[in-house]
Amino acid sequence: MKSLVKTPPATGMYHPTRRSLGLMLLGALSLAACATQDYPPLASVAPPGSTPDQPYTLGTGDRIRVNVYGYDDLSGEYDIDATGAFPMPLVGTVKVAGKTPSAIESELTKSLKSGGYLTDPRVGVQVVTYRPFFILGEVKTPGRYPYENGMSVLEAVATAGGYTFRANENKIIVHRGGASAPGALAQPTDAILPGDVIDVQQRFF
Questions:
Q1: Which residues form a coiled coil (predicted)?
Q2: Which of 16, 17, 82, 101 could lock 125 by a disulfide, CB 3.0 to 4.6 Å apart?
């Protein structure tokens, strides 16, 4: 005898289609690829434009002091602007991005002498304030922070309020030379440099 009681349709159940299963698999593979991507160690990545004797090169955000010895009116402190330059009396616009302080000393000495302003100029260039570093990802207060000489990755994380509970403390990627530069895997004790972009990765439970 045929039952007159109809079975109610199932509710609250999800039946994935082939398309949705494919998308889920693609997403999982993408996450796995990100998690397993190989990065070179940060210690093996040289600063942009570095040389053995003078590793630091100037860039936007640095503040420098130029001393023209014996000429206080030509000496002063200057901020490197967005074009990587600063204006100096008599000399005009001085392009410094990517150059070392010692290279700028030589250029200014030559300009002051060849322009007929000084017969025997002596010029010194020192960094007063380094350009900031940036820290993103799984830290409590991501953003831009002032750089202090000799800072480590761990000190940078502490400056940003420490790790979040989602942070993968074993996967910190540093982009040396800006966000578009290739990433490198950093250790907590690795030194950072002015302009570094630090990205603390998320762990997947």
A1: none
A2: 101
**DSSP β-ladder status, 183-186 and 197-202:** unpaired
Classify 38-48+131-202 by CATH class.
alpha beta
- Which of 102, 106, 117 shows the shortest CA–CA distance to 70? 117
Which pLDDT does position 41 carry in this prediction? Answer: 86
C-alpha distance from residue 92 to each of 40, 69, 87, 159 (Å): 42, 19, 5, 38
Q: How far apart are CA 138 and CA 133, in angstroms?
A: 16
pLDDT in tens, 107-166: 999 999 998 889 999 999 999 999 999 999 999 999 999 999 889 999 999 999 999 999
The tokens for 18 are: 């082939």
Model confidence pLDDT, tens digit, residues 163-174: 999 999 999 999
CATH 1.20.120.1730 fits 63-129, yes or no: no
SS3 label, residue 106: helix
Tokens of 184: 């490198």
Domain ranges of the chain: 38-48+131-202, 63-129
